[in-house]
Amino acid sequence: MDIKEIGAQFSLVVKKAERVSHAILSEVYIINGTHVLRSRVLESGVIDRFKNECVLIDHIRSRVPIQFPSLISTKDGTNHLIIDKFLWTAYPLIQGDILCSWWELEKLSPEQEKNTFVTLKKLHTDTAGILSDVSDITQYHFLNDVRQRFSDPDPLLSEKEKKRIQQSIDYVVAREERFAESEKCFVHGDYHPGNTIFKGSKVVGLLDLDWSRKGYGIEDLAYTVMMFLRDYRLPKFLFKKEKLANYIKWYDLAREQVRDLHEYLILYTFYDVHLFDRLSSIPDPKKFRAFQRAFLNEICEQF
To answer: Comparing C-alpha atoms, which of 189, 226, 217 is closest to residue 25?
Structure first.
């Protein structure tokens, strides 16, 4: 089934379909300049996560000043379409701009960079403690995924790195077991400017909610911090303490939560080492893999 046929299932007459070039893990098309068609790979658990995502977004949509995709129905009345090994959704285009991809964050202005973190904090604060009716089905998805990946032998990891990663896993396991309901909030799970819609310097929309869940906001923050600490203009990763200090300040992170950030940051850095080793669709994969391994080595030394 081609894009015109898929669009027709959502009652869209496709006159022009423009594929979004920076979408790496999914196929995304802008239809007629007014709608979006997006796929996700139909892996194990995807349907359950998608259903949970829909419930989660319904709970928070009216509570935050940010737009989320409003899924439109198929001719059969469902909000998604399964074709072969893909789950397709469609929604009206959110007005605004995607300013850059995840590997070129230097294109943001200082104010846009700051507001990325300010908006994330507000998103977490506005949704904390209001999700008691939402399932915890995906709360531990990231942690379990990390443990699964860590169990795969990696001869390029040093013994020091292995020890430090295991310490982070143990710390996060203990931390997540102590979660209070009041701490749980909306977690995007893939929050970076490639998935955010800007108007000027303001974040007005969020996209790609595949990893969204009810969880701990610092996990979300750690992922975003990792993305912003990487400067691919450099030949090798360079840790800049002043950048991390700014991110902590802009998010208004409490001092007692800094350790949580460090431990989640190590896990996300390791996660992307594993991801880049297996992902062939990224541009210049050799460069990204070497860069991420240098990042992991440095971050294990720093914390």
So the answer is: 189
> What is the end-to-end Cα distance of the chain in Å, rounded?
50
> What's the pLDDT tens digit per position in 170-208?
999 999 888 888 889 999 999 999 999 999 999 999 999
**What strand order describes the sheet that includes 17-19?**
17-19, 28-31, 35-41, 86-92, 81-83
CATH number at residue 212: 3.90.1200.10
Please report the pLDDT score of residue 25 as a whole number. 67
- The domain total for the chain is 2
Helices 241-251 + 110-127 axis angle, to 10:
40
Domain end (from 92, 116, 133): 92
Q: How much of the chain is helix, strand and coil, in % rounded to 5? A: 50, 15, 40
Q: What Cα–Cα distance (Å) separates residue 194 from each residue in 36, 224, 254?
A: 15, 11, 27
CB 53 within 8 A of CB 45: no
